[in-house]
User: What shape does this take?
Amino acid sequence: MNTLPETHRRPLFPRGPGLGLRTFFLAAVSVALIFNDSRGDGLQPVRTSLSFMLTPLVWLVSLPSGLMSAAENLDSRETLQRENREFREKQLLLEARLQKLEALEAENRRIRELLASAGRIEDEVLIAEIIGISQDPYRNQITLNKGTRHQVYRGQALIDAHGVLGQVIDVSPLQSKALLITDPDHGIPVEVNRTGMQTIAIGSGELGLRLPFLASNADIQVGDLLVSSALGGRFPAGYPVGTVYEVKHVAGEHFMEAYATPAAHLNQGRQALLVWSESYRMDNHEAELHPDEPRP
Amino acid sequence: MTPTRNLILGFLLSLLVALALQLIRLPDVLAAARPAWVPLMFAYWALREPRLATLFPAFVVGLLMDVLFGTALGQHSLGLVFVVYIVERLRGIFILFPLWQATFALIPAWALYSFLMFWVDGATQHNADPWLRWLPALSTTLFWPLLFSVMEALRQTPDDE
Assistant: This one.
């Protein structure tokens, strides 16, 4: 059987000889774009406007999973009642804990005043819904339904109920894209909660987080909690990032490496919290004071 | 000129469907083996419709894919442009093949696409499992007869009217 019927064998318009040349030209443009894009931020506006144009498509593609979760909403009455009861109990428990927290917060404030440092426990947050997960299995990215209209900015930290989730890398008016902490491109400054040692946790996909180049006598053990550190000014300090599960001496190297499981429940749940960090607010404040100076 | 308009509309619609298939959520186990729908669709049109200019649309759709996947701008367009070039160049050979032979003859095109994606990812410092990278080439090969038959069946109906 032939794949082409008789009628189509002859093209309507004979093609000019430029195919190879045009291919070469477009390939050269592509390579130039790749080169430019991997070196700097110059193409960010193009990306932003294209991603705004593609918003309907992303929405369309997320419809099936949205419908599925809508079907889950049709729960039985008993389930709802049971859940309601559980929530009441949980709320009571949490309220009790909150009372303690207020006392602790007051104490913390007093102590901080003694130290003459400005720190706050509550950060300004905004709940965003995760509307898309990167379908490329080699990148850990999510799409959120909040954008510049909601004052989301590039580099903003993202947390969930259990710990730091990642940071925003790309903002368009109605949605934004965030890089998870396990992405190989991502690094986050962390502090070992037990000893206060500062280091950097680099994402390594399935392995969770990797803490490379630790001094060979560094005090770090399996089970240590890593919390976010304010160094670098991106992330708010003190949120859990992960727990160390392996400390490894690399043969023949002067350093050791540690591996940690992320505290945040990545790839679970549909909500995330966007956090406005203090350094961003201070930058904004300075920009208001000197409006003519360009922002970095 | 309604047939031409129908053709272009069908072309755009099929590209939209291919993009959606490329984006739709799959279980983690299958995600690595997702066939490359957009190159498949472009190869079909480049092979089957000499009247359409597919090279420039391939470039533009490649840029859209780069934005959608957050890859370096130009990565997917490079791959798509090369796939379209190969298919257009060798169309004279491909159209003489029966479907099953064309399926095998197109393997180098998918392999080249997978390799380009892998290579640019490597050049822009995104590491990836080098073995899993070849799964799309395999699944795309398997999906070619399906896509070809479905597209032929879909396009047969309006032509008969």
Notes: The longest helix of chain B spans residues 135-160.
